[in-house]
Structure formats: C-alpha cells, structure tokens
Protein 1
Amino acid sequence: MSKGFFNVPVPKNEPVLSYAPGSKEREEVKKMLETLRSAEVELPMVIGGKDVFTDRKVRMFPPHELNHTLGYYNQGDSSHVEMAIDAALEAREKWMNLSWQHRASVFLKAADLLAGPYRAKINAASMLGQSKNIFQAEIDAACELADFYRFGVKAMSDIYKMQPASTPGIWNYNEFRPLEGFVFALTPFNFTSIAGNLPAAPALMGNVVVWKPSKTAVYSAGVIMEVLREAGLPDGVINLIYAPGPTVADVVLTHPDFAGIHFTGSTSVFQGIWKTIGNNIEKYKSYPRIVGETGGKDFIFADNTVKIPELTTAIVRGAFEYQGQKCSAASRVYVPKSIWPKLKQQLGEMLSTVKMGPPEDFTNFINAVIDEASFNKLKGYIDRAREDKDAGVIFGGKCDKSAGYFIEPTVILAKKPNYVTMEEELFGPVVTIYVYADEKLDETLNILDTTSVYGLTGAVFSQDRYNIEKITKRLTHAAGNFYINDKPTGAVVNQQPFGGARGSGTNDKAGTLFNFLRWVSIRSVKENFVPPTDYMYPNFFPEKE
C-alpha cells in the first residue's frame, strides 16, 4: 500500500453566507426564488438513472402560500418500489467494486456543486417547498449537506485505515464490505441536509439505496437528485421514489435483500418499522441494520445564577427557529421562581419584535408550519392550554391558515411539571415553561429526567460551575447532545455529532465514523506466509536425558 493512499482533501465546514442587504448571495437567491416561482415543474421519480413518470400527479405548493402552485410530482405505486429495488440490486456489483476514491469523488463533487452553482437553487427550493427563511435554508440545505458529503469521505477513509496488527510471517487486514442487499433511506421534511445525507452515507460505503423522501419535501429532494446526477453518481446507486409510506414499506420491509434502513422521522413510525422488521426477520438474507433518529422533547434548565438576556435569546431561537420544527428544538423550559418575573418581561419584549410571514421577505423570522395536519394539531394544543386550569397561553397563540399555515410563536405557562405540553412532542412553534421553587432544584432535575420518553437534546444555563457539573452529571441519559449556556439546537457536522437515545433513536451520530460503520460488514483476512508443515506441538517432543 503506497504512502498517502488514504489521503483525502482535508474538509472544513462550509462558511455560512450572510445574505445581508446588497450582498451578492442575496441577489442570487432572490433571482432564483423568482425563477422557481414562475415555472411549474414536473418532478419524475429517478429509478435506475431513468426519469419515471406516472398518471398520478400530486400538486406541490408553499406552506406559506397555499394558492401558488410550484409544480407536480409523479406519485408511484408498489410496482415502482419493486422497480427501484431491482435497479439498485442490478447496480450493486459494479458500484461496490468501484475503488473508494471514485466513490468519494462523486460526493466531493456534489459538495462543491452545492456550495457553488447549486447553492441558490437548493436554498430557494427549501425556502419555497418547506417554508424556511434564508438563514435556516443556508445553514441546512447548502452548508450542512456539503459538510455531510465532505466529512463523510473523511469518515470513510478513517474507517479503511482501521487495520489489525500482524505478527512476523502473517498479514492480517480488514475488508469493509458493503451490506449484502440494498439500504432503504426514509427521510424527513425538516432538514434538506438530512434528506440528502441519509441515502448518501450508505452509498458512499459501497451500498445501493432506495430513497423515499417526505411528501412535503419532494421539491428540494428533486434538486438533491439533480446535484448527485451531475456529480456523476452512476445509474441505480440511489433510486428516488415518490410513493405513499405504507405502500413502500409493504414492499421494502418484506424483501429478502433488505439490508438496512437509514431513518429520520417520528418515534411511532420508527417503532412500527422495527416491529415489522422483527416480524419478518426470517425472510432476510442477513440481519438488517436499523439506524434511526426520531423525536425529542428537548429542554432548557436554568438556575438562579443565569444571565437573563442569554436565556431569553436561547428560548426564542431554540424554540422558534424554523417554527420549532426541529427534532432538537427547545420544547420545555424549567426556570426558578426568583428569576421568572424578569425573564417573562424580557421574553415578552423580544417576542414583540418577531416578524412572521413568507420567507421571500428576508425580514421574517417565523414562516409557516409544514402542512395542515401539523397546523391543526398545534392549534389543538394551544386551544386546550387556553382553557385548561393547569396551564395558560402567556404569549402568542394566534393561528391562521387562510393564506398559509401560520402559527405565532407561542409560550405556554404550565402550573404542573407533567402538563401534556411538557411531555408530548409538538413539533411546532410552541414552548412550555414550568417555574420551580429555587430550593427544589434537585427535585426538579429528577422530574425533568423522568417526564419524557425522549433523550435527544438539552441545555443548562448557569454561572455556577458546581451547579453546571451537577446538572450535567444528573442528566447524563436525558440528552445525546447536551449544551452548556447555549440553545439545544444547531449541531454542526464534525463539531457536535448529533443523535440521542431513549425514545429518540439509536444514537449513531450522523456524519461521523460511528454512523458509517453501520453501513459495512467487516471481513477479517489472515494470510500466512510460512504455513506450518507438521501438526506436532513443541511440548510433544520428549525431554532430553
């Protein structure tokens, strides 16, 4: 093996552009928004490298502008799922035998395309299709997805360098084989980067993939596939299908060549998939890899030494960026009684400056929630809190779906720590605050740790280093990503490996070596250069007189 064989370009996190008034990037994305708004597109499925059209056209529209049509996507059925599996398996041998450098080149080129000529398009598609403001689109769709691809190549090369020791006369080495079959990627609406990474990570390790994106993020998924095809991804390696979830599951999860699932979505869906896999376990050629990141009921815990402006900002950003539609969004907050009056005042003042509206207006902090089902669910919780004796809406709460699915940033004050909005994941711009007695800090930590089934993200705000250590240790299993004096959102690839346990998933840390190891099956090879020629052990020989 020649020196430098494993050298890869040293990745750096893609810089986040400002989109400030007068900036080049601001003008570029504005022009792209106009271009995408003015043309109705028709998105085909991509199976075996071919565009596949059907007679079932589903309308795409911005969640913030229900009357505007972005275009239509072609919905498939079970026959298209089978077609995608067949295409993946047909592509498998050539792709898995392609040298790792050439697999890496595809995704390194895709990263450069996202950071360069496709930056405005992937951002604009996410803004229109998923109602993201420009800052949220930039950090997600362009920067994080480029980071996933670049750092994925580094993780792959680091894995290949993980080799065993050898003794004189023997050479031992590991082969990191792709899984035997195909991988199913089921991706969410809330992060374009996750939608692009979940099928790419297994593919980078030599696997072939069937990819089903969320029906509310088809628009940006089409752009991701466009980027991958331009980057030179061979036909059939990743097959993009638009079919109803149950239809896809019925085919994929019963197929003998199903080798694994890479999932981000709800806990209930993930648990249902896991049960189905268990029920079908005897059908598969090998035990499928199950990798999933699911829900969260993420918390902020403050003590009475906290700096109020920092805590206020963390609540507003942590709870309401991208309308709280992040698995990591701050959803419950615990504050001591002594600081509550001042925090409430500053929180109200800050929220009074927040603007809500379509993302095409770059001054809007809050945009629309993703669809009508989400809107109705959230409105139901807000209406209930208004009437409930154990809670009250103290800020926001207005809901309007006449033009788009708009819900004001809403703050609920709970009178008891196990109120429903302190326990259940809402996935929207709603945060619940519980005020605890200062002297009951330890008791409140116990309540926090046992209130929710989730364990994704959490944060502690304090200026007392002894308290910080105590709280961090006490909440060891409450969050897979834990933040000290920072909001519980905003994990960056290669800086804060993301994932949680308990009801929040398998904690395989997307974008890291730990995740990529899940997509290989290791073969250990031993070669003996000087094989023995006699079965006799040394102790068999008689002692000399």
Protein 2
Amino acid sequence: MRQVEAAVDSKVNNHSSKPPNFWMKGLSVLDRRFEEILIVTGFLTFIILINLQVINRYLLPFLDIGNITTWTEELSRYLFIFVSFLGASLAIRKRESIQVSIVINRLPGSIQSALHLANLLFMFYFSYMMVTNGFQLISFQIETQQTTPALSIPMGIPYSSIPIGFALIMIRLIQMFIKDTKTMSLKEGLLGIGFAIVMIMPIVFLGDAAIALVLFGYFALFILIGMQIAFALGASTLATVLATDAIPVDFFPQTAFTSIDNFPIMAVPFFIAAGIIMGGGAIIKRLLNLSDELLGFLPGGLALVAIITSMFFSAISGSGPATVAAIGTLLIPAMIKQGYHAGFATGVVATAGTIGVIIPPSNPLVIYGVVSQESISQLFLAGIIPGVLTGLLLLLVVYIISKKNGWQGDRKEFNLKSSAKAAWDAKLALLVPVIILGGIYGGFMTPTEAAAVAAAYGIIIGMFVYRDLGLKGVYRSLVKAGITSSVIIMLMVMASIFGRLITLERVAEIIADFVLTLSENKFVILLLLNLFLLFVGLFLEALAAIVILTPILLPMAIAIGLDPVHFGLIMIFNLAVGFITPPVGVNLFVAASTAKIKIEEIIKGNKYLLLTMIVLLLLISYVPGISMWLPELIRN
C-alpha cells in the first residue's frame, strides 16, 4: 500500500496533496472493510429472510408472498455461500485459521518463514485453479441456460461465488506475501521456493502410485508444515489429481458449491452469531448472577457457578471456546481473588466449556449431522442427557475438591427470594433454549430456522431491551461470526473435495475391514475407536476431525452395530476431551490467555476433572441408553 501511495504522489506532485490523500484513504478503508460490510449485510439479510419465513408460516399466513418459504430459503442459501467465501477471504487477511503447529513451531525461525512462504504458494495456486475452473463452470451454466428452481435466475450467478470468493482469497494471499517478504531475508525466500519445488516434484513420478497413498501422504506433509487444514485438504487432493488423473480438476469448484448448498448447514453461522451476540453483554451476566444465587453459598461456590452457567450458556452458543471466553473473563479473576488455586480455577472453566459441544444446540453435532446425513434433531436429543450428566458429575467433583481445600462461597446460605429475583432477571436468557429446543421438537421450526430466530432474538434483546448492544456491537459480532463460521465452512468444502477420492478408493471400507480382522468383539473395537479418537483429539481440532474422519469411521461403527446417532455422540465426546488436553486443547488456550497463566498449571489443577471426562466417555460409549433413550422415545 505504501508503494501505491508513493506512485500516486509522484504523479500528482504539482497538485494539492488533498485529493490523493482522500482517495488513498478511501481505498484503505475499502481494503479494510470490503468483506466485512458484505458479510454483515449478508448476515442481516438471511437472518431477516429466515425469520420472515417462520413468521409467515405461523403468524401471518395471509402474507404468503410468491411462495415465500421456497424463495426465501433458496435466496438465503445462495447468500450464505457468498458470505462463507467472503468470510474465508477475511479470515486469510486476519490470519485466523485452524492448523497444526506442533512440528513447525519447534523448527528454527528461518525454516518456519521458508515453510510459511511455501504454504502461501500452494494456497495461491489452489485458489488460482478454483478461479479458472470456476469461470469455466459458469460458462457452462450460461451455455446450457440453467436456472435456479424457485427464483429462476441463471445458475451462473450463485455459482459465481466460487471464482469471486477465491479471487478475493488470492488478493489477500498476495497482500500477505508482500507483507511477509518485507521481513524475510533473501535466503529464507529462496529456501521457501526451494521447499515448494521439492514438494511438488514427486507429482511427476507418481502416475502409477496408489491414489490413497498419494492423497494421505500429501495431506500429512501439508499438515506437518503448518498449512491451514482446510487448504491442506484441498491442496493434497489437487496434488493427487495432478499426479494420477483420478478425477477431472473441474470437479473441484462444482463440489465446493454443492457441498454447502445445504439449508441445515446454515444453522452453524446462526448459532455462532447468537452465541457471540449474547456472550458479551447483559445476558451472560444475568446467567452468572442466577447461578451464583443457586450455588454460590456452597463450598466451591464460584467454581460451581462456572459449571452451571456453562450449562445454561451452552444451550445458547453451541460452542466450547465461546463458552470459555464468555464465562472465563468474568469468573476466573474472581475465583483467584477468593483464594482458589489459579490452575484449578482456570481448569474448571476450560472443562465446563466442553459442555458447549455436547448439550444442544451444538455446532459439532450440526456438522456431524450434515456430514453423516443424520437427523440434526435426533443428534440434539441424544446430546441432552450426556450434557446434563457431564455437568452434574463435574459439579460433584468440584464440590468435593473445593470442600477438601476449604474454598468456601462468599455467602453462607441459600436465599429463595434472591434466587427468584435472579431467575426473573435472567428470564429472557433462559427463554433462548426454550425457543430453540421447543421450536425444534414442537415441530414449529427446523434447527436452521430455530438458529436464525435465536440470532434475531439476541440482536433485539441486546439493542432494545437491555440496550447494551449498539449498531457497532452488532457489526462487530456479525463480522466475528462470519469469520468463525467461514473457517468451519471452508473445512467442509475442502473435506468434500478430499472425500471424493476417499470414496473412489473405498478407503472407509478397507479400514473397516482391517479393523474388523483385529477382533470380532464389539466392545474391543469400540475401545480401539475411542483410543484412536482420543489420540486424534490431541492434535487435530474437533471440527476438522469430524469432517475428515466421519466418512471413514462411520461405516466401521455401523458394521459393529452402533447407531449412527450414538456414534456421533461418542465421536463428539472424544473430541471434547481434546478441548482440554495439550498440545491443541482450544479451551485450555482460551482459558490460559484469560487467566494469564501457563498451560502446565492448568493441566496440574485439571487432572481430576479430566479423569471425570474419561469416565463419562466410557459410560456414554458402553451404555447406549444414556444417549439413545430420548431419540428412541421420539422414534417410537
């Protein structure tokens, strides 16, 4: 940007400096805000459209404008796809991603810089292929005159989200490249280019190699060098296709579009938006106050408050890290001030945050439902009892530990009047899970519609009732929701492309057959599955693990007689344990950054809570009724 400014100034040195400064300032603002403005506009539009769809269905049926249910859903899906790719571009600019950094962080700084450059080159080339093949796909759509079912607009318009989105990603990668090379030595730059050349050389000689070997080999390589997991999936698939001609390259943009042209998946950004909007204001404070009135008088009062509030907030946000961030900021300093050991206080909040991915609405359950094509409503039902049981057992363990250490609450007794007042003050927050779950299981709304209603509810309550959320707050919340959800959506896009080769090579069936040869005992195989998922949870972020492993492991689970819904809870609970185990425990890092303490201290203070989670995992795995009683009740 400085070079551009210098060039402009040199051309207009005989004129006033005000016009170029004005225009450059405008370009700078556009550069910073371009994706943000479009993301917020898109979010507000499809939140309004989906809520209008629900309102029209039940409250104002006489306003059925042009088959509103059909066209609002279609338009919302297409806007969601555009917003997802815009969010991916913004995530690149803000350097927010899911990646495995364990290996690369241990390397010398010069090697890290060189590998980062190599990653940028691979990501840029993949994006270039998506742009060029994306425009070819649009040309085909125009030539064949294909139109959308409800709106009858040319299909080339929604499909243009792919080349436009990846073109923006290319621009952001170029900006990142320019910025990074300013601090990079010539030696590091040449080393990075050398690494890239060495890594692509095998493609020339791998034509006769097994597709699965090339695919997983390149995926492992890209993961180890610190590439974003989403791009590692896409780039490894592209490398395999270039080496083996397994599938046409023009398949990539079409799959990128169709994989997320899916109404249920829209629940993810809505739940994320609802959690962010309600996690930073009066709603979370009222929930904390209610929890304090209910349990604050017991030994370990504030620690118990952290757990019970996590249970309440989990039924709003559907996210573990979001729950930890919202609650930890307020409670961890207060607990330390009251005399709790810092590691224990932080560990309690981090572990309580795992409830956010078990109790509905859970984003991981939504992702598993979309990938496995299982009912999200059934999965939500399956998560209720395990989630509540997790909360209750954590409460018991924390109570025992606190009583042993003499950590008392700040009050001596329970006050019914104060508790009733706190419950009344928190009534609008407590209504959120009622609206979501009541709407879904009452048959009034789909999970996606319930999520959109929750997001709108959070905006309305924050702006007009509690008045702690202004227009800037809504803007920031929706930008953050757009970035967070786009990282997840990009994972699903790339995993769908990656999964095509897995299906082609029958990888899932081969792995299932191999495991079944090890033992015919269902309980032994289930134990092996748990150990594998626990191991994966140590190194791979939960959502990435779900989209990558579900197509591979689900056939094996079905082969030994597991219900796919039950297996979903087993998988999510295993990966939830990964939230509180190093080296990639997201909850640990969020809590540690809040408390400003080392991870080692949290692990030491968290050992009994981690053991409790392992016991719960075994119960959920080997006692199917804990997860399946409610779903089977509804099925019958």
Protein 3
Amino acid sequence: MPQRYLVYCCFTLLALFNGAAHLQAQGNAAARYEVDAKRIGVNPTDKDALPRSREFIRLDSTYYVGWLYEGIYKFDRSADYLGYKNAIVPLKKAMTLLEKDYHNTFSNLYSDIQFFAQNINRYQDMFMLTNALKECYDNLEMPDSVMTLLNNIDKYHFRKDYFGIYYHRAWTYHRNRFFTSNKFSFLKNSVEENEKMAFRWCYNGLAFVEQNKPQNDAWFGPGQGDADKLAIYHYLALLHCYNKNYDSSEYYYHQLALRGSISWSNYGGMQSEIGNFANAIEFFKRDQDKSYERMLREPYYYLPELYVYAGRPKESIKMTKDIIAANGSTPGFGWYNIAMARGYLYDGQLDSSAYCLDKAANFKEIHIGTTLTQSQYDFTINLLRVQLLDKRISVIKFLHKNWWYNPKCLYDIANYKLQKVMAEYVVVNELAYNPERTRIVYDLFCAEATSSFDESWYLMKDFSPNYFLKLYDNYLQNDKRPNIQRYFSLFSARFKWEAGKQREARADFENLASNTLLDTANEKLFIGRLYESLALANTGSANATAYRNYSNSLFDVYPQLVPFSGVRMQLHLTTTGLEDASTGSVISDLKDCNIDWNGQGTAPVVQVSFKKKGDKYEAVINVRSSIGKPLVTNERIIFKKTDGVAEEIALRIFGKSGALEFEG
C-alpha cells in the first residue's frame, strides 16, 4: 500500500505540474499576443516607449520585447559613458531572450522566402538590437565585445549581410590597429597585421556578396548586392588611404561618388593627406551641414585646421565657437575645443588657447563613429601644450628687448621651460609607446592624424636632429605624394640647420623659395615657416637686405607668426591723438618691445591713435604691409589702466585679436 500510494502521489504531482505548465504556456502566449498588439504604433524610440517597456515586462518578463523597448529607448537618448553603459543591460537581456525563443527560426530564416517573410519582424528586431549593442560597445571602447557580437550573428549563416558583419569586423580591426592581442584577444600583434585582417574581412565580404548573389537576386531583385558592395567600398577607401595606396583609395571613392554613397568628409581627409588643400576644404564643406546625431562632426575639427594652414585662424576660431554653441557639451565638445585652442594659438591668443586645452582635458569625450581615439585625443592636447609653452617663452623675449637681465622675465622663462620639459616628457612617452607614430606624426599628413605638420615640428625640433634629418631625406626619396615633397624638403632643411649644417640648409631654403609651386591661398603656414627660416638664416649685417625682405614677406603672409619666431621686425611707428601721462607710458612701453621701430623705405607702417572716452582710453591700430596692403584696420582697444596695454598693442599690430575692453 505505501508503495502504491507513493506512485499514485508522484503521478498526481506530475499531472498537476504539466497542467500548471500548460496553463502558464497559455498565459504566456496570451500575454505575448497582448504585447505584440500593444507595440503596434509605438516605436522603441518614442517618448512613450519607456512606460510601455515596463508594461510589457510586467505582462511577461521572459519575453524579449519589453527589454528591447527599454534598451533601445535608453540607447537612443544616450550621449555619454554612463548612458551607453546603462543601455547595454536591457539590450543584452533582450538579445538573450530573443535568441532563446527564436534560435531555430533564425537558423532556418533563409531556407524559404515565405518563411523569411513570416518572420521578418523578428529579424528586424534582431537587427535593431545588434546595431544598438554594437554602437554601445564601440562607444565604450569594448571592441572584444563587438567581435563576440558579430561572431554570434554569423553563426546563423544569413545569406544576405544586412548586419554588415564583414565590414564591421574590418572597421574594428582598423580602429584598434595599434593594440595587440595582449589588449584584445582577437587582434594580431602589429599595426601591419591588423591592417591585413581589416583588408581580408573586406575582401571576404565582397566574395560573400558574389557567392550569394543568385539567390539574393531571386529574392530581393537584381542589383540588390550593389548597396552591400558600396558599404564595403567605403571601408576599402579608408584602408587604402591609411596604407598610402592612393590610386586604389581614389578608385573606391570614385565608385562611391558615382552612386551617391560617398562620405565627402572622408574624401576631404584623403585630399588633405595628399596636399590638395583647396579640394579638401571644398569636400569637408559638403558634409559640414550633414546631420550627425550625438557624435563628432569631423568637418568642424578638420576645416579649422585647414583654415590655420591658410592663415585664417580667426575663421577657425569662429567656426569652432559656432559648433560648440549649437551642440553644447555633447560628444565632439572636447575635439572642438582642441580645434579652437589651435585657432587661438595661431592667432597669438595664448591665454584663450590654454583655457580651451584645459576644457578639452577635463571633458570625458566619447569617440562615436570615428577612428579617432582617446590616445590621439590626449596626445593632441599634450602636443599643443608643448607648442603653447614654447610660444610663452618666445613672447616674453618679443615683448621685452632686454629680457636677459630682467629678473621677472628670467624667472618666467625658467618656469615655462620647466613646464615645457615636463610636457615634452609626457608627449615623448606617449609617442614611444605608439606603434603608428611614423604614420600619424612623422608622415606630416595623414587623414587619421589629429595634429598638424607644424605641431609635429614643435615636438621633433628639440630631439635628435640627425635622426630626423635622415628620416626626412628618406621621405624625399620614397614618398609618392608630390604636393607633400616640399614639406619634407622644408623639414630636412630645418633639421640640417639644427644639426649645424647651416650653409646647406640656407641653400635648401633658397631653392624652396625659388622653385616651389604651391597653393598660395591655402598654404600660408608653409610659406610663413619658409620665410621665417630664410630670415633667421640671413641674420647678420652682411645679409641685412635679405633679412629685411624675408621678414617683410613673413609679416605679409602670416603676421601672427612673427612674435614667436625670433625674427626682429623693422617697423615704422607713428602715434597720433591724445598725449598725456597714460598714453606716454603706453608708447614708452611699446618701444621697449623687441621691434626695430625706426624702419624706413619698405618697412611696414604702423599707426596708433589715442583718444579719451570718459575715464577710459581708446587706442586704434592700423597697419600697412611693405607693399601697402592693409594688414590691420581700425583694431580698437579700450583700457583704463596702462599695465600690459603696450604688450597687447604690440601683439595686435601682428594680427592678434582680442577683447575690445582690455583688463590686463
């Protein structure tokens, strides 16, 4: 009896359990039907999506839809690290539940077109989840999770690559090319090997398109594979540019342009890399107003840099100010501040440049939709700091002709030199551990770089001139970019000068000045550096005429460079208007600057006019170049106290901008 009773109880419990399971299944089916009905008309990105997600989860927490709505809602509104991190949790939950319930469906999705059509909604949900997760992982610098996600999708062997598995793999290798398998297990152990893997995935993707073309044409129509190829061409164009295969890069960009699928911003980067600066500006401008949501708008970083090359730092500053005002502290804010710091630096506004660099350094930038990385971000800030400190030292010597026996000047110079040594130490260490330093820094122009050729000089000039002389002589022999050869020649000549080969260097400078054809509208920074080098190479009474001519040429082309160049200009100064103790003090201090004010003949003419407004003074500055071209027109400064006014006037004579009211 006890055994029979035990068996009876077991069967009774089993029957009750199966009944409960059946009732639960019926309940789940009813709840899921209700969820599917209620999700119609409400997108996961709508403002009502979050409360709907909670309702869906309450109805059935084992159904993926509620988690999908929560995850996509949070992802769509994320703009910082914490936002993307929080979005990952419900997105992963939704993906796990979706695959648990529909694994067999996805495994057989392409077996029959009717079966595909019946399950297209689930497929679209998987696509939505995959894209959102991939973006979150990318934005949080989690490439290993990206590759795991892509591998997971690949196991279903979908015959059409809507998910972009191949080119996303290529992008992930390229974006993390400077790391090794010690950092992320999927990577190889050199930049070159990682780039090979990026190319391999692109070409595998093209082969995949061709392999599945017959069935996909039958299902989706002839020509369906063109868009898939174009997506891969986009990455091949980038990869070939980085690897200096410019003909191949041009081919893919041409194919993309023919079909209206080109990124003009990326093409502008390639044009800049090969020295076609006018074209680069044109193409960056085409994407300037393109809609980018919560991500860096690259034209607003690279166009300001090109404006600096063109001697238009004020336009560079205005452009970055405008984008910051429009976008606020969203992703890209840090990069825009770096670009603004560069504009201020080349306009002679050193304090404003330092302020922007500090803002960028203190901002937690998220590098969305770009190959630009945190290491490049930090390196660029620190490299600009080196140049800033170098210019702080130079401007003291410019503003005080007797600086070498002025205790305050000597103290300030020593302080800045110490800061500069420390800044250089940081940058050199960053460079030493960067396996692509040759491509990003020494090549001078690279579409993936975030610093300019001129900034590279400020890093290299204090280290091993003989090494860099050999390096740039090698570039002159082997680099295939005709428009960049003159930059290598300039660097080679400047390193010869630093290495003590001054006669050879002077001959190289003069040869460049006589025989170089360039874009005079967009390469003023190059021209300015060349004239600066020629002026310094002709220092001394025996070369007084050449020195004066080259100094005047530098002043005509890029006047903001002069105060930081070591070139002592000859100017003809006239002062007019109010004469009293205050204006007399300003004029006296102005004449203490390291400028020869007795210039005659071809010397640029400076006129400073003073007048009084209530208890304040106004100085109006006008400057004409050696050929009579207006360089500064009615630049005004209003001041009350005279401390520092003369120094500010001296800098504004050389094109610097600043506030109307000077506070010292």
